[in-house]
Amino acid sequence: MSTPLESKSASQRRGTPQFVDVTLRDGHQSLAATRMTTPQAMRVLPMINDAGFAALELWGGATLDSCIRFLNEDPWERLDTFKKALGGGEKIRALLRGQNLFGYQPGADDLVISFVREAVESGVGIMRIFDALNDERNLQISILATKAYGGKVEGALSYTTSPVHTTEYFVDFAKKLEAMGADQLAVKDMAGLLYPTDAFDLFKALKATTSLPIAMHSHSTTGVAELNAVIALQQGIDYIDTAVTPFAGGTSHPPIEVMIVFAEEMGIDPGLDKGLILKAQAELFKIFEELKAVIPQYGKFYRPVRYEDVDRKQVNQIIELVAKQDKAAIEQAIPLMRNLLLGLGYPKFDDKIFEAQVPGGMLSNLHNQLKEMGQLEAMDRVLAEIPSVRADAGYVPLVTPTSQIIGSQAAFNVIMGGRYKLVSDPFRMILKGEFGRTPAPCNPEVVKLVLGGNEQPLKYRAASYLTPVMEDEYDLPFAKTHKDLLLYLLFKQSAETFLRKKYGLS
Ligand code: CO
């Protein structure tokens, strides 16, 4: 049995790394196709909240889209329910895709302002904002709006690897976010590409650059996020994103049950109620079973994990290697950490991702897409094509929406029997700069082939070319409230279908 630690006030813990829980947003988005319902989440939210996490990621990302398309739920009502359950929104974090909001294409400035206002006023306390291209101009409006309406801004670096994505590049981007008014920063490693020796360099460099709090968001897909988390603890990174088993590990995040043991052995008081976390874990296993139809890992991995299951001798070996602050020692710690996690029943890691750079969600999307096309046997060739399509598109990070765009284009290149014989509209938009400035210039030959000779990429901030949408009059029987209208303007047809159903309109 575990004894709950005394919960200390945030001020007492300032300066000590703290854990953030993402189970009820990224946890089920990564492992269960974002299908956890609000009633399911509500069965564990009070326990997770009372456990004492620094923040809870509960909204944003794919949850809005999933609510209206698959769960027949109003995402605004979900936010309201969570806020009421927590007695306020201060700890509620949401993931916002910058100018793309919670959708897949850049929105007009007035839509971004209005949407962000409604989100902050409805309960989002901390807005984690990223841009898929790390074009800081795409974060401008949402950062200003979040702050104007009283929210805290966490500016995120979309982490990826390429010849242009060096530590200096990310440090430089962090400085831009700070100058733009971010209250805190996040390293958003959506594909698990942050290799531990690079994590060491990056965390150290960021800590030396900024005094803003920094969060680490690393997916466990490649089996190194947990080691990154130990490096983060050691380097004094302020917030570490974790999830509760079984919505942890694999394409999700480091399991809190394991990270607590590491923190304790490092002499860090995580300020968490360990008993409550195990209670939440037990309930989450029930929900995991209820969602098994959409969980590929169901039945193959995962079992209840207690703190005493985590071998403290192995934990200390890893901690000692990390404490050396030396890259050879960090390399040695990688297999030790992977074995520790495999031994506890977490999913096998996928090393191939370091080459293909494909986030977990993108893999399953591609799989489904190829299956629908009856081309599943082309999967390996499509994966092999991705790095070259990505290079042609100026080394864009692979995160929503660019991950889907690059993945689909790679699939077209393979299936159509030639590169760029068929080009999707969104891929064309990337080449035109309509998503923003790509990290490196796009391949000029591909630009010429796809766009023809005369077209120049956009010069100014991409959304500055978009016409306002909130000034128009809308006479839509299914949009009865301002929130309904916002959903419609962002999600169009799928929002209309949802709202018609909601109001009993045919
Ligand atoms: Co994530």
Tell me about this structure:
By secondary structure, the chain is α/β, with parallel strands linked by helices. The protein has 22 helices and eight strands. The chain has helices at about 10-15, 25-30, 40-50, 65-70, 75-85, 110-120, 140-150, 165-180, 195-210, 225-235, 255-265, 275-290, 310-325, 325-345, 355, 360-370, 380-390, 400-415, 425-430, 445-450, 480-490, 495-500; strands at about 20, 55-60, 90-95, 125-130, 150-160, 185-190, 215-220, 240. Helix 6 (about 110-120) packs parallel to helix 7 (about 140-150), helix 10 (about 225-235) crosses helix 13 and helix 21 (about 480-490) packs antiparallel against helix 22. Cobalt (II) ion (CO) binds near residues 26, 190, 217 and 219.
Overall shape: it is globular
* Protein structure class: alpha/beta
Oligomeric composition of the shown chains: single chain
Strand element count? 8
List cofactors, ions and other ligands. Answer: cobalt (II) ion
> What is the CATH C level class of the largest domain, in words?
Alpha Beta
Number of helices: 22
Low confidence ranges? 1-12
> What is the level-2 CATH architecture name of the largest domain?
Alpha-Beta Barrel
Query: What is the overall pLDDT average?
Result: 94
Q: Tell me the number of structural domains.
A: 3
